[in-house]
Each structure stands twice: as C-alpha cells, then as structure tokens.
UniProtKB/TrEMBL annotation, chain A:
InterPro entries: PFOR_II (IPR033412), Pyruvate:ferred/Flavod_OxRd (IPR050722), Pyrv_Fd/Flavodoxin_OxRdtase_N (IPR002880), THDP-binding (IPR029061), Transketo_C/PFOR_II (IPR009014). Keywords: Oxidoreductase, Pyruvate. GO terms for molecular function: 2-oxobutyrate synthase activity; pyruvate synthase activity. Residues 289-390 form the Pyruvate:ferredoxin oxidoreductase core domain. Heterotetramer of one alpha, one beta, one delta and one gamma chain. This is 2-oxoacid oxidoreductase (ferredoxin).
Automatic annotation (TrEMBL), chain B:
NCBIfam families: PorD_KorD (TIGR02179). It comes from Staphylothermus hellenicus (strain DSM 12710 / JCM 10830 / BK20S6-10-b1 / P8). Keywords: 4Fe-4S, Electron transport, Iron, Iron-sulfur, Metal-binding, Pyruvate, Repeat, Transport. Residues 35-63, 64-93 form the 4Fe-4S ferredoxin-type domain. The keyword Iron-sulfur applies. This is Pyruvate ferredoxin/flavodoxin oxidoreductase, delta subunit. GO terms for molecular function: 4 iron, 4 sulfur cluster binding; metal ion binding; oxidoreductase activity, acting on the aldehyde or oxo group of donors, iron-sulfur protein as acceptor. PANTHER family: PYRUVATE SYNTHASE SUBUNIT PORD (PTHR43724:SF1). The keyword Ribonucleoprotein does not apply. InterPro entries: 4Fe4S_Fe-S-bd, 4Fe4S_Fe_S_CS, PorD_KorD.
TrEMBL record, chain C:
Heterodimer composed of an alpha and a beta subunit. GO terms for molecular function: 2-oxobutyrate synthase activity; pyruvate synthase activity; thiamine pyrophosphate binding. This is 2-oxoacid oxidoreductase (ferredoxin). It comes from the Archaea. It holds the Pfam family TPP_enzyme_C. Residues 81-248 form the Thiamine pyrophosphate enzyme TPP-binding domain. It is an enzyme of class 1 (oxidoreductase). It catalyses: a 2-oxocarboxylate + 2 oxidized [2Fe-2S]-[ferredoxin] + CoA = an acyl-CoA + 2 reduced [2Fe-2S]-[ferredoxin] + CO2 + H(+). Keywords: Oxidoreductase. Its EC number is 1.2.7.11.
TrEMBL record, chain D:
SUPFAM superfamilies: Pyruvate-ferredoxin oxidoreductase, PFOR, domain III (SSF53323). It comes from Staphylothermus hellenicus (strain DSM 12710 / JCM 10830 / BK20S6-10-b1 / P8). It catalyses: 2 oxidized [2Fe-2S]-[ferredoxin] + pyruvate + CoA = 2 reduced [2Fe-2S]-[ferredoxin] + acetyl-CoA + CO2 + H(+). InterPro entries: Oxidoreductase_gamma_subunit (IPR051626), PorC_KorC (IPR011894), Pyrv/ketoisovalerate_OxRed_cat (IPR019752), Pyrv_flavodox_OxRed_cen (IPR002869). Transmembrane segments: none annotated. This is pyruvate synthase. Residues 16-185 form the Pyruvate/ketoisovalerate oxidoreductase catalytic domain. GO terms for molecular function: pyruvate synthase activity.
Length: 419, 96, 352, 191
C-alpha cells in the first residue's frame, strides 16, 4: 500500500497518469530505464511485456536491442552475455519459462551481473495452468537472485526501476527478480503515475556504470566486463579449491542487500511520494495485533481489506506483506511478529512433503525467540484459485479462534480447496 | 607480476564475479613431458610448420630460429611428426 | 612476463612471445591477414596462451590459435562448456589473451547473441570506443550437434553477427568419450562400446554443416587444423561477413580416437584425403565450393584414399579392420562415397 | 456527475472477440480521467473467439486494495443477448443492482430470460447489435454498452469516455465508436 504522501520532489501533476495493466507498467519502466538489451520469449501471462516492448523498439522509442530468442533458456543466456559485455539487460518470463531459465539463473547471480527479470507469477505444470501462483518464484529462491514481490500495478512500475538501482549498486551487484502476480496484476488495468523519462534516467544515473575489479595481471583496477582494452575471463572452471570462497562472495553481497533496498525505497519516496513499507516488509496494524497474517503479492490488498473490516469490528488483527523474499528479512519480521498470539502464514505455493516456502522462513525467524506466536501455514490460491474477501475473512476467524484457545491443532491448512 | 598474496587465497582476496586473476603463462605444463623435442638447427629450413601446429604455443620464433620453450611443451610430438625435413626428434626426457 | 602490454605488430625482436591482446579505446584499423608462415610467426601472437591444461596433442588449441591469427581487431570469445573451456580457465588461471566468457553448455550461441546485441547497443549510444568488436564462439560437438543446436539455430535465424567455430572431436571427450550425434558410425565410445552384438555406434554422423547451410546464413565452411591456411582464410571470411557464420572444424582427440599424440595433424589430413571430411565453403551466392585438398581430389580422383587410411591409425575403429567386419568397412566406404558424390554434384567448382 | 459509493463493481458478459475486456478497460480509463481509482480485468482463460467470457471493472474514490474477482457486482452489462439462454447473468447482483442488456424486443421475454421479477432490478436495454452493424458494419457491441451504461448511471463523464476511446482507437475508428456510444445513449431505455 502507498503510505501517506509527503511533498515529493516531482509533484504529482508532473507524474503522468496512465491506465495500464501490470505487464504494460513493467514494459514502461524498462523503457524508461535505458535498457540496452532485452531478450525475451513469450509466455502467458508475461507476453504483454514483450509485446509492448517490441512496440517501443518498432517505433524507435528506445535504443534497446531486442533479441526475440527461441526459448527462455536462451533469453537468460543472452542477457548474461549482454550484461557481461557491459549492457543494462532485462528479461521477463513466467512459470515453465522461469523453470527453463533455472540453470542460467545461478550463473547470472554467480557472475554478479545486475540483470533485472520480471516474473508474471504463474503455476508450474502439470497439469498445465496459466494462472497465478508463486511456485515458479519459490523455485528460484536458492539461485542467488534478489526477489521482490509487488502488490499492485503502480508498485510493479516503481519496483522495476528501483530494481536496476538495487542490482547495480556496488554493494550488491546481484540480479533482481520483480514478481507480479499473473493476471491479478499482469492483466489488470489500474491507474498509475509515471515519472518523466529524464527523472528516471537521473534516478538511475544514466546508462549502466560498470564496477571495477582487480586481477593480478593488471596494475590498476579494470572494468568488470568483456572489454578488449582490458581482457577478463568470465565463468572459469572453479574446483574445490576456490568454489566455496566464491560462494562466500554471494553470501556477503546478500547481507548488504537490505540496507540498499531500504535506501532506494527512501530515495524513491522523496522523489515520487510513494514508498512500500521500508522496501522489505509492509506491515499494517501489527502493533497490538493478536493475530497477524503474512502474505506475498497482490493478495495482500485483499487481506488488508479484511483487516480494515475486522478492525472496525474491534478485532485485534494485522498483516505483513513480505515485499522482499530473498534475501529473507528474518530478524525484521520476527521483531514484528514476536508479540502476536497466532500468525497465519499464507503461501501461494508448497514444497511438497514440507510446508509453504515462506512458512519455513518464518519458522526459522522465530526459533530463537523465547516468547513467540503459534504458527499456522495457509496454502492458498494454487493455479490461480481466487482468494476472495470471504475466504480471507474465514481464515482470520479461524486464527482468532486459535488465539483464544491458545493452541494450534493443524499447522498446515489449505484455503479454498474443495474436499 | 609477482603476487603478494598467499595462495590459495581466502575469499576476501578474490576478485569480484569469479573472474580469473592470473594468466596461465604462470603455470608451467613442461613437467607433463615424457619425450622432449630436440631441434637440429642445421636441418631446419624455417618452414614454421612446427610453430603453426604446436598445440601448446611452446615453439617460439626468435627472429632467426625456432626455439622450443620447455616450460610449456607437453611433448606430444606433433612437431617432430610434421617436420618435413625431420629436423625435430623426440628424445626421452632426462630423468636426472 | 610484463603485466601490461600493448599490441605491437609486427613483434619487435626480443619481445616476449606471449602477450595479452589489448586494444586501447579509440584503436582503429584492421589486423592484416597474413598467409606466409614466417611472416605469421613474426607478426602474430596467439589469443590462446601457453600453460593451458588441454591434453598433449589436442587439436582444439591448434584450431583456436590458427583462428586467432585471422582475428581482425577487438574480439570477444564465447566458449561453450567442454574440454577447451575447462582446460584453458582453471581458476585462478586463464589462457585467454582476449575477453572471454563461458556461460553454460547449450547456450554459447545465445550468449553470443547477447554479447553482440550489447555491442550494438553500446555503439548506438556512443559508448563503444572501437568501430567494431567481433564475437567468436568456440564450441565442441556436444555443445553444437546436440544440446546446443536449438540455441545455435535460433541465433542463426535471428542473424546475429558472430562467427561460430565448432571444434568437432566427435564425442563427449570432456566427460570421458561418450557418443554424440557427431560421432561417426561404428566408432567405439564409452556409451557405444564394441560388444558381442553391437559394433560401436550404430548411427551416422549428423550433417551439422549442411544444417547450417539450410539456414542460408552468409557463410558456412568446413576445416581442419591440418589444412591450416584454408582454416585461417575461412575464419577471416566468417568474421568479415555481416551476420552469422559457421565453421565446422574437425578436431582430433588422441584420447578418444585412440591414436598417438603425434598423429593429430596426420589424422586430420587423412580425414580429408579419404573424403571422410571434405573441405568446402558455402555462401548464398556461390553455393558449395570445394577448397584446398578436397578441390584437388575432385579434380584428380586418383588422390582419393580408401577409408581404411583414416581408420587404421585410430583405436576407436580397430574392430573394423578385423576380417569378420569387412562388410561394415565396405558399408562405411559406400557411405563416404555417396556423401562425397553428393557434394561433388552440389559443388559449383567440381569438374563435371 | 453522480457520487459513486466507496467502490462500484461492474461485471461484463460477452463472447470472446466482442470486446468485453476492451469495454471494461475503456470504462476504467474514463473513470481514471475523472480522478477515480480503477481496476479492470478479465476472468482469465484460454478462451478463443465465441466462448462466453467475463470482464470486471472496479471504480472507487479510494485506492483499491482488492485483487480478487467480482462476485457481487453493482452493475451487470450483457453484450450479447444470446448469452441469456445459458448464463445466469444476475448471479450475485446486489440488491437494487443495475442490468444493462444489448436487446431489442419483448420486455416480458427479456425478464423471463433473465429469470427475474419486475422491479427486482433496474433493467436498461439498447439495440447495440443493430447500431454496431449500422455504424461499424461489424457486430462489435462493446462501446455502445458504455453509452447505455452512462445513461442509466452517469458514473463517468462523457468527455472522459470520449478521451479514452480516442486514446484506445486510431482516428476514424475512434470517431465511429464515439458516434456509436452517442446513438446507444440516445436509444437506451429502462424497461
């Protein structure tokens, strides 16, 4: 949710009003971000991003080289090549497309290439399904990418631009995936405010700047790119004598991500008047709440709608939207949750044979606390199953009953599935 | 360049992005060799075929003659086999 | 060895033989194509440095070295997973004097698409300090015939300006000699072993270069390191055309082909002499043209050697020389002859 | 302009290819021009031309939190009268809700097809197919329904509708659609 607006540097009247769907908003953001190379392959519900961007290319509105690759594997491979060559690179996909990219996701992160990927979240086959869930995004959680989830179309636009800023920050240099719920955001028209092109350019500091690196065979630091003036070797063979050390680089880079995300969120707020919590977590009515629900993506709006309703009825409920899933904000979320009686963790995906993926994280977050809430995992919305307000309300009622009883009998619950 | 770092290095001393930081010219493959090519410069007609075909870039033209760089030569024997005038012979590597 | 070097061509006397290729921003011009061996030795340095850990007698570094003699200026090399990639970049070392990237096995062409597109975008926005930067891919048969074919075909269809050099050692040598679709019929590999029932691989080699011709890209050729002059010329042509170019170079592997390390060039020569691996080039304008030794054989068929000449020095075909397998040998000879006849019919410069 | 409630939810019924989603989008765009917060989305499926489809528009004075489908609409708009035979278009419609149908013909028959009693809901009809065939020469019935809607409930200004149509369609097509909306507006009547 957009919080109370202070006077932004760019007044609202200078932020053009657009009525666009989430995919179009993402394409606009990429267009304004001076992207050098876009390589993408069509897959519902991401396709509109590629189509829209192709229009910008066809009309000469961007300098971008658009590479209409023959698969998502090649899309990710091409943006790795492009980013290594010094370009700002962007791609987008969903579901099986993201799964096909999987191998190269790890490579993009390990080579420290600040690629931005928009994922229009969709369920994985089989059976084939084109609708929203988060199993695709959860599938890439260990790949070394930063993962951000947005709630609405405005945030999709804002976050894609911020993603370039975060990815390219020298403290970070990691790729960023911006997740928007398939159809619920990708195909939903909402009114948004966009910045003038030059303000976006300014925010990003113009074209991509390449960081420097020190290797023994050059006296000075040289640009970390494929550069005929200072040749470097990307992607060497790394055996047990060095691989572990290289993974430490990624571990350390991830540690620096939260502060950068928070800074960028704050800068964006000053510029536009819009911010999303602290950029990592977006809490609502949690201070005195007995029952708190955590959720990712567009369902957060529906949850907030119900929290408002229940608060009006005097029930002590609250919610936290997890905007950043990787790196996971363990301490931050534990601090917000520790005083609740019951926490309902909503997952639009499940690790078969275990729990929902964010539930595992939240369990881990709270383990070290002496006083901690009871936890319930709600698996919901698989394959695009709608989560209407009534269903969310039913979940809260269950949780309130659990809070009253002080005991949770069934930790893993399925919301909205037919028996 | 000689490095001041201890090898193998800790992660803090490795370059970003896992790019290689040394050239393989620092890594001598000459000790792989069981047979050593020896050039008879009196026979050599300077056709340069050994230089062309050497897989290890171990044959160097110094401006006047070919020189075998035993730091890198792995002793495959291609040079001896391809030499049109049999100026190169493969001899057992001295065991000392 | 000095850490920082500038390209000095011709090489001055007494200069180190191994140097990085450095093109300072603003470098103009074009490295000359040199075909005289002495002048080559005086004026060219390999883009592949010594100290790499490929097997003694491997053909791949010879191909890379020869190809780099044809580079015309700033060049970025993309390498698919394989022996060449693994053995030339064992961390912390690199044998590459030019900028180089390895992404994964099946995506060298897609990676090159991205690199080439980045170069275009940088140029368009005035951020490329050279007139052109060439992109050259090296990939083995596994990464080209098999797992990388989709990405190669896609990149060729999109028309990216890059040269793809296939070094074909006719099996998955990096993982220990498993058959690929580039392995010839009746060859022994660890996954097409010679047993009591099966005589090695039972399928023919995939016609990869013809598949690339079917894409009607600007340039396709075959080559071997033995025919080094032919190879250098073809690489330069492949770099100079606008759009994708593909060179299929045979690349003997003494471990997998089971021959003496000194016979690497010899076996490549015999592959051409027996018409097992004919040398040709193709452009949309000229069609197929025989080159070098293959053109000589076409003009004088007496030069054509029987297939045994190619097989007899390789352990992977040892079983074919046994009396009980004579029919297999005959079949193989017939196959080679029919493919050669087919090529003669297609080649514009073959005598009719 | 009529004041909208906290949030107005509209459900569009059409067949694939008739432009129900486009109409939902046009209405949302127009409301956004009027300074409202909007949402518009289809009930997403792989349907091809001809299959019955749904689209939704939400219009609100406040930012819209909800991201779920619409189950209890305030207004239902039916682009194709042949849908009435198979689709229960009044499902979930709020009490005193509004139904707008592309229809010309017998009123009793319409009520019968809708399965509702007189005075249960407000029902407005306009001969959209006939008008579309006259003006566009094609049976695309989405834009005329917007004309009927704003006559029945002036939830967005005509100026904003015009602006949205011009933004969405190129020159002459925009003009024809605007003419069509005006005609449908004129002929729309409560039955």
């Amino acid at each position: 949710m957009t919080e109370a607006v202070k006077t932004p540097i760019i007044p609202l009247e200078e932020q053009e009003l657009l009525t666009v769907n989430g995919d179009e908003a993402v394409a606009y953001a990429a267009k304004q971000s001076l992207v050098d190379v876009v390589a993408a392959y069509p897959i519902t519900p991401q396709t509109i991003i590629v189509e829209k961007f192709s229009e910008f290319v066809a009309n000469g509105e961007v300098h971008t080289e658009f590479v209409p690759v023959e698969s998502e594997h090649s899309a990710m491979s091409a943006v790795v090549g492009a980013a290594a060559a010094g370009a700002r690179a962007f791609t987008a996909t969903a579901a099986n497309g993201l799964a096909l990219m999987w191998e190269i996701l790890y490579i993009a992160a390990s080579l420290r290439l600040p690629i931005v990927l928009a994922v229009a979240n969709r369920a994985l086959s089989a059976p084939i399904n084109i609708h929203c869930d988060h199993s695709d995004a959860y599938g890439m959680r260990d790949s070394g990418w930063i993962q951000l989830f947005v709630e609405n179309v405005q945030e999709a636009y804002d976050t894609v631009i911020q993603a370039f800023k975060i990815a390219e920050d020298e403290r970070v240099l990691l790729p960023v995936a911006v997740n928007l719920d398939g159809f619920f955001l990708s195909h939903t028209l909402e009114n948004i405010r966009i910045l003038p092109d030059e303000k976006v350019h300014e925010f990003l500091g113009g074209y991509r700047k390449v960081p420097k690196v020190k290797v023994d065979y050059f006296d000075e630091e040289v640009p970390l790119m494929l550069n005929p003036a200072r040749p470097l070797t990307f992607g060497p063979l790394d055996l047990y004598d060095y691989y572990f050390e290289h993974k430490m680089h990624q571990v350390e880079a991830m540690k620096r991500v939260p502060e950068v995300v928070q800074e960028v969120n704050e800068k964006w707020y000053e510029l536009t008047g819009r911010k999303y919590g602290d950029g990592i977590l977006v809490p609502y009515e949690v201070e005195d709440a007995d029952v708190i629900v955590t959720v990712l993506g567009s369902t957060a709006g529906t949850v907030r709608h119900i929290v408002k309703k229940l608060r009006r009825e005097g029930k002590k409920v609250g919610m936290i939207r997890i905007k950043m899933f990787r790196p996971f904000p363990h301490r931050e979320i534990a601090e917000l949750l520790k005083n609740a009686k019951v926490v309902g963790v909503m997952d639009r995906g499940i690790s078969f044979g275990s729990y929902g993926q964010s539930f595992l994280e939240i369990n881990t977050s709270l383990y070290d606390y002496r006083k901690k809430p009871l936890l319930v995992n709600y698996i919901y919305g698989l394959g695009g199953r709608d989560a209407p307000p009534e269903l969310i309300e039913k979940m809260f009622e269950e949780l309130l009953r659990d809070a009253e009883k002080g005991v949770v009998e069934n930790k893993l619950r399925f919301l909205g599935v037919r028996e | 360049m000689t490095s001041t770092h201890k090898e193998p290095r800790g992660w803090k001393d490795l370059p970003l992005g896992a790019v290689s930081y040394r050239l393989s010219t620092d890594y001598k493959t000459g000790d792989w060799r069981a047979l050593r090519p020896v050039v008879d410069l009196n026979k050599c007609v300077k056709c340069m075929l050994c230089w062309i075909f050497c897989p290890d870039m171990a044959i160097v033209w110094d401006g006047e003659k070919i020189v075998i760089n035993y730091d890198y030569c792995k002793g495959c024997g291609i040079c001896a086999h391809e030499c049109p005038v049999n100026a190169i012979t493969m001899v057992p590597e001295p065991t000392e | 060895m000095p850490a920082q070097t500038l390209p000095q061509i011709p090489i001055k006397k007494g200069e180190p033989a191994y140097k990085l290729w450095i093109f300072e921003p603003g470098w103009k011009g074009e490295l000359p194509l040199i075909l005289n061996p002495r002048q080559l030795a005086e004026q060219k340095r390999s883009a592949l440095l010594p100290g790499h850990r490929l097997c003694a007698g491997c053909a791949a570094p010879i191909i890379v070295k020869l190809a780099s003699f044809a580079f015309r200026g700033p060049t970025i090399v993309v390498n698919a997973t394989g022996c060449l990639e693994v053995a030339t970049t064992i961390f912390p070392y690199t044998s590459w004097a030019v900028p180089w990237i390895h992404n994964a096995f099946e995506n060298a062409a897609a990676t090159a698409s991205g690199v080439e597109s980045a170069i275009k975008a940088l140029k368009k926005t005035g951020r490329l300090p050279w007139d052109h930067v060439d992109v050259v891919v090296f990939a083995g048969d596994g990464g080209t015939f098999d797992i990388g074919l989709q990405s190669l075909s896609g990149a060729a269809e999109r028309g990216h300006d890059f040269l793809y050099i296939l070094y074909d050692n006719e099996a998955y040598m990096n993982t220990g000699i498993q058959r690929s679709s580039g392995t010839p019929k009746y060859a022994w590999t660890t996954t097409s072993p010679v047993g009591t029932v099966l005589p090695g691989k039972t399928q023919n080699k995939k016609p990869i270069a013809d598949i690339m011709v079917a894409h009607r890209i600007p340039y396709v050729a075959t080559a071997t390191p033995a025919h080094w002059l032919d190879l250098i010329k073809k690489v330069r042509k492949g770099i100079e055309v606008n759009g994708p170019a593909f060179i299929h170079s045979l690349s003997s592997c003494d471990r997998g082909w089971r021959h003496d390390t000194s016979l690497t060039i010899e076996v490549s020569r015999r592959a051409v002499d027996t018409c097992y691996f004919p040398l040709w080039e193709w452009t949309p304008k000229t069609g197929y043209l025989l080159t070098d030794r293959s053109l000589a054989i076409a003009r004088n068929p007496k030069l054509k050697q029987p297939i045994e000449k190619f097989l007899e020095i390789q352990g992977r075909f040892r079983h074919l020389l046994k009396p009980e397998n004579r029919h297999l040998l005959r079949e193989l000879q017939e196959y080679v002859d029919s493919v050669w006849e087919d090529l003669l019919n297609r080649a514009a410069n073959a005598p009719r | 302009m009529m004041l909208v409630r906290y949030m107005l939810e509209i459900r569009w019924h059409g067949r694939g290819g008739q432009g129900a989603w486009t109409a939902a989008n046009l209405l949302a765009m127009a409301a956004a021009y009027d300074g409202k917060h909007v949402q518009s989305f289809p009930a997403f499926g792989p349907e091809r031309s001809g299959a019955p489809i749904l689209a939704f528009t939400r219009i609100s004075d406040e930012p819209i939190d909800l991201h779920s489908m619409v189950y209890e609409p305030d207004i239902v708009i039916v682009l194709d009268p042949t849908l009435l035979k198979n689709v229960n278009v009044v499902s979930g419609l709020k009490k005193n809700g509004l139904i707008i149908v592309n229809y010309e013909g017998d009123t009793d028959k319409l009520y019968n097809m809708l399965g509702i009693k007189k005075d249960e809901y407000k029902v407005v009809v306009t001969p959209a197919t006939k008008l579309a065939l006259d003006i566009l020469k094609r049976p695309i019935t989405n834009t005329p329904m917007i004309g009927a809607l704003i006559k029945a409930a002036p939830i967005v200004s005509f100026e904003s509708i015009e602006k949205a149509v011009k933004k969405r369609f190129p020159g002459s097509i925009a003009e024809k659609n605007i003419a069509l909306i005006k005609e449908a507006y004129k002929l729309a009547k409560e039955v």
